[in-house]
Amino acid sequence: MDTTLIAADGHRLSAYHAGSVDADRALVIVQEIFGVNHHMRHVADAFAKEGYYVIVPALFDRAERDVELGYGPDDIDRGLKLRSEITGDKTLLDILAAAGQLPADIPRGIIGYCWGGTVAWHSATRSTAFQAAVGWYGGGIAAAKSEVPNCPTQLHFGETDGSIPMTDVEAIKAARPEVEVFVYPGAGHGFGCEERGSYMPKDAGVAQKRTLEFFAKHL
């Protein structure tokens, strides 16, 4: 189901939401560079079935509305171009608008994938809107490793990710020993997406189990 959010600067963006507003916990789920597509709705529905009220803001609305991409080379190029047209501070405004849409009297977490993994990290370090944060294969986290999360944070990376070298992951571990970091041997970028060639069902299942346990502990 779709809804409309209004950011602090007046920007209106769409969002997909799922689950019951009477849930005990809530999540903001942050998209990859492919928009709020079929996979992101699938992710949201899966968390809703686990008892979360979830919302997935359409971050690309600041550059182009109604973007839903697949996972081919042209889609990657287009997604990267759209991402480059949106500044980090504007993205954070949209994340906070999504957080503000969640019920105020229940714990709130954030989880993101790919670009969204980096956005989730920034949301944890640059705001106090969340009680827990999880990032899956966020390529920009290493560049912001000196930033301190304001809530418990957990990160997941694939060992053979072509865009996130293990030197970056080790640098994150060294800079932020308080953060849980998991590496999946042999897994590449996007190993948690069932629509990508890099999908690793076993690793995705383990990462999801760890994510759910983490949120259950902190939310």
Q: What name does CATH use for the topology? A: Rossmann fold
The outline comes out as globular
The low-confidence parts are none
**In order across it, which strands form the biggest sheet?**
1-2-4-3-5-6-7-8
- The CATH homologous superfamily name equals Alpha/Beta hydrolase fold, catalytic domain
What does this structure look like?
The protein is an alpha/beta fold. The chain has one domain: Rossmann fold. The chain is built from six helices and eight strands, in the order E-E-E-H-E-H-H-E-H-E-E-H-E-H. The protein has helices at 38-49, 73-84, 88-101, 115-126, 166-175, 201-218, and strands at residues 2-6, 12-18, 25-30, 52-57, 108-113, 132-136, 153-158, 180-184. Strands 1-2-4-3-5-6-7-8 form an eight-stranded mixed beta sheet, sandwiched between helices. Helix 3 (88-101) packs across helix 4. It is globular and about 40 Å long. The two termini are 24 Å apart.
Question: What would a concise description of this structure say?
Answer:
This protein is of the alpha/beta class and 219 residues long.
What attributes characterize this protein structure?
alpha/beta; Rossmann fold
